[in-house]
Amino acid sequence: MQLMNERRELILEELITVGTVYVSELARKYQVTYETIRKDLSDLEKKGYLVKCHGGATLKQGAIEHPFQIREKENGSLKKSIAQKALTLLPDNCSMIIGTGSTTLELAKLLMYRSGFKIFTDSLPVANTLISSENQVFLFGGELRNKSSSVYGGWALSMINEIQVDLCFLGTDGFSNLTGPSSPSSSDAYIDKAIIAHAEKKYILGDYTKFNRKSLYKICDWRDITALITNNLADQAQVAKLEVKTKVILC
C-alpha cells in the first residue's frame, strides 16, 4: 500500500510539473503494468486531480495550486513585458502594495533599479528582491504560506487596514469566466480583497493565458479594478467582453 501511495504521489508531482502524463511512460518509469498505472490515474481522477485522456491524463484545471517556484518559470517573457508596462504607470515617489505572484515579482525586479518609492508587500520573494534597493520596503507580518511564499492572517490584515496607498499591483490565477480575477487560495484572496480596499488605483497583472484559466476563489469584481494589464496576444473577442467591465491595457 505504501509503495502504491508513493507512486501516486510521484505521478501527481510529475503531472503538476509537466501538465500531461502518459500510461506507457509511467509504466516504464515505475516498472509496473499498464493496468496498474490506469488504476493509479483512475484513483487520482476520483480525487479530482486530473482528467483521463487517450493514453494518459492531464492536470484538471484549478485542481492543484502550483508551488510558487513552478509558476515563476511559466511564461517568463510574457510576465516581463507586463511588468515593464506596469512600471510606466508609477508616479515618482508614490506608495504601492505589490501582491504575491510570479508576475508581480517581475515588477519588483524592475523596481530594484528605481528609488524613492514606498513599497508594501505580503510576498517574501518580492521583499527579498527589493531588500537591497533604494526604496522603503515594508513586509506585512503574519503566518507564512508555503505554496505562494506569502504571509496571511489577522496580523497581515491589521497592517493593511492601517495604510492607504496610491496603487496596488496584484496577480491572478485566471479569469476564464470573466466575472473577476481569481485565486486558488482563500487566504490569498482575502488578503487581496483587503489590499484593493486600501489602494487608490488597483491593477491586475495577468498574462493572456489567464483568459483560459480560473481558480476556486474570486478576488473581486472587475468594476473594483482600475485596469487589467495583459499581453496583446489575448483573444480580441475576450478582451472586448472584458472591456465592458474594466479597462484593459495591452502590451
TrEMBL record:
Molecular function terms from GO: DNA binding; DNA-binding transcription factor activity
Keywords: DNA-binding, Transcription, Transcription regulation
PROSITE patterns in the cross-refs: HTH_DEOR_1, HTH_DEOR_2
Leader peptide range in chain numbering: none
Keyword Nucleus (UniProt): no
Pfam families registered for this protein in UniProt: DeoRC (PF00455), HTH_DeoR (PF08220)
Domain of life: Bacteria
Residue ranges that the Swiss-Prot or TrEMBL entry lists as coiled coil: none
Protein's recorded name: DeoR/GlpR transcriptional regulator
Taxonomic source organism: Gilliamella apicola
